[in-house]
Task: inverse folding
């Protein structure tokens, strides 16, 4: 039996069948997913907590342990790993495939609230939850640099403008930031000068905390008008901290400048990012699960001129790494193979049945 005979005897039906296959292939070709790795949708969460100044052992015992005890009671949790560093703890939670990611977020948030009473009271903010895809790596890495502006100013533009606008682009999932340089005022004191005056470091910390609290001041009421009180008691400059009175000795005030100095510096000096031997703030862009990686990167690149126009000209945005270069080469190879197969398949003569 010749399998080709029925198709040769019915050329019109064969032609229509081939046209249908061609149209179906062209339509479904646009729906093919493009990614460097398979789409693995394990429900995975990352919980990060910060306590500035705490050593890794303290972070593990006073922050990570209470959280881990509560996380261990979440149903469907298959794996939990944690890592503690100076002032920083990161806990990764991986759940069973039967659990929905939104449900795991709700359970994790409840566990954090249950552990809140056991966490240190001086944590600047509560632990944060992020949804992550373990199969994803950054598809595009950007470097934000400046030759004239301080890195704390560059970080402010990167976090408050660039990161927000990139996150709104279709297909973009998580935008991570590296080399973070949040601006802060650092107080550096001489321990010997403090000891000579009988002042402890805790006394200095207490005064600084009380002097920089922006609280409502209330109102002044009259029979006809009400005035809202608004005073400028919040300190924003380093020289304003230098004039703070820490204590009184023999009726004379002891100020910060008498025992040390106040400087404008990054919040964490142990974090740094580099691009071409220059300090930079790094933005690592990850795609949403299932999004076309090439289209997502193309949208971000098309948005770069708009992003550059939204920040001062002294701040430059550069592409450090583009993961789609190898993916584009693979896609081009597949396209060439498909085209070569179609052309080679249509070259031969049709066999004639005996």
Result:
């Amino acid at each position: 039996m010749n399998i080709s005979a029925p198709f040769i005897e019915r050329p019109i039906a064969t032609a229509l069948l081939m046209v249908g296959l061609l149209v179906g292939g062209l339509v479904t070709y646009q729906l093919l997913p493009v990614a460097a790795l398979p789409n693995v949708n394990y429900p995975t969460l990352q919980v990060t907590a910060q306590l500035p100044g705490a050593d890794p052992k303290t972070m593990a015992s006073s922050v990570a342990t209470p959280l881990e005890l509560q996380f261990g009671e979440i149903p469907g949790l298959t794996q939990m790993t944690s890592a503690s560093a100076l002032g920083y703890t990161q806990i990764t939670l991986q759940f069973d495939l039967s659990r929905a990611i939104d449900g795991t977020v709700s359970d994790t948030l409840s566990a954090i609230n249950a552990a809140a009473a056991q966490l240190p009271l001086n944590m600047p903010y509560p632990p944060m939850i992020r949804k992550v895809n373990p199969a994803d790596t950054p598809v595009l890495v950007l470097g934000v640099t400046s030759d004239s502006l301080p890195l704390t100013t560059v970080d402010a533009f990167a976090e408050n403008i660039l990161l927000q606008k990139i996150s709104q682009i279709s297909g973009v999932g998580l935008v991570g930031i590296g080399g973070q340089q949040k601006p802060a005022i650092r107080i550096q004191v001489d321990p010997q000068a403090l000891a000579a005056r009988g002042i402890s470091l805790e006394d200095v910390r207490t005064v600084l905390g009380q002097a920089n609290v922006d609280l409502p001041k209330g109102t002044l009421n009259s029979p006809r008008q009400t005035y809202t009180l608004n005073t400028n008691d919040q300190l924003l400059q380093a020289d304003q901290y230098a004039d703070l009175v820490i204590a009184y000795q023999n009726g004379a005030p002891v100020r910060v400048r008498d025992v040390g100095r106040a400087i404008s510096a990054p919040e964490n000096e142990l974090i740094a990012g580099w691009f071409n031997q220059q300090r930079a703030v790094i933005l690592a862009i990850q795609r949403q699960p299932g999004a076309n990686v090439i289209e997502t990167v193309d949208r971000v690149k098309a948005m770069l001129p708009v992003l550059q126009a939204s920040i001062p000209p002294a701040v430059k945005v550069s592409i450090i790494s583009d993961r789609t270069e190898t993916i584009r080469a693979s896609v081009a190879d597949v396209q060439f193979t498909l085209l070569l197969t179609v052309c080679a398949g249509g070259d031969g003569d049709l066999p004639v049945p005996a």
Observations:
- Residues 16 and 82 are 60 Å apart (CA to CA).
